[in-house]
Amino acid sequence: MKRLTLGIAAASLAISGCAAPAFAEEPVNAPAPKRIAKEGAGLKTAIFAGGCFWGVEGVFSHVKGVKSAVAGYHGGAAGTAKYNRIITGTTNHAEAVKITYDPYVVRYDELLRIFFSVVADPTLKNRQGPDVGAHYRTALVPLNAEQRAVASAYLKQMGSSRVWKRPIVTKIESHKKFYAAETYHQDFMAKNPRHGYILRWDKPKVRALKAMFPSDYRPRFLRDG
Asked: How many other CB atoms sit within 10 Å of the CB of residue 202?
């Protein structure tokens, strides 16, 4: 089911937003990466697209070492980087999250493993969970040569791991300008803990993060503003 169109008023989120549940998702024990990221000192930035950005942002906001998680749009033009445009699926944008992290606490390869274990199913094309459309595609957007090498190696490793029964279809996309989403989408899980979509689809992902990656889990939701 496609996400229902949001009105301008934030109040419409109660009856709109991400689509209604369709089927259950289960976490997957993605393989430990063989290619370890060598990123050096200093904060790094990465972009992940994996379906509805509420859940992607929500999970990464609970990961130790993540300093910022911003929901937004990647892949299209500035003029169409608006929620009511991208949900048509015709703008080339993907709902995405830009994170800033400390690689001395959590490396890029570890973020990839978390992402494919509890956030996104890499075998689904142009959809995640109940949300369907090109704007819900799963993609990795490396911001430097090391991230690209690590992402490429990990996708190849995933494909030969036999963890997933279907082919891996997640792609690496070239970095284009990232556009932050509207204010009401930021920190959505923290602001709307009783929202039906959050309860049904995204809170289970955070619980899976806690259970599967206890040393990476941060109980407090990192608010980005």
From this structure: 25
Domain that holds residue 57: 33-212
Q: For 10-48, write each residue's pLDDT tens digit.
A: 333 333 455 544 444 689 999 999 999 999 999 999 999
> Is residue 52 flagged as an active site residue?
yes
Whole-angstrom distance, CA of residue 191 vs CA of residue 61:
13
pTM across the whole model = 0.90
Q: Across all residues in the chain, what is the average pLDDT?
A: 90
Question: What's the count of helices (H) and strands (E) in the chain, helices before strands?
Answer: 7, 8
Whole-angstrom distance, CA of residue 8 vs CA of residue 2: 18
Which amino acid is located at 30 in the chain?
A
3-state helix, strand, coil in the chain (%, to 5): 35, 20, 50
Instruction: State how far the Cα of 140 lies from the Cα of 109, in Å rounded to an integer.
Output: 12
Angle between helices 203-212 and 53-60 (to 10 degrees): 30
Catalytic annotation, pick one of 18, 37, 46, 52: 52
Cα end-to-end span (Å), the chain = 31
Q: Is 183 helix (H, G, I), strand (E, B) or coil?
A: helix
Count of CB atoms within 10 A of residue 193's CB?
12
* Amino acid present at 194: R
User: What's the domain count of the chain?
Assistant: 1
CATH number of the domain residue 162 falls in: 3.30.1060.10
Answer yes or no: is 223 within a domain.
Answer: no
User: Are 51 and 131 contacting, i.e. CB atoms less than 8 angstroms apart?
Assistant: yes
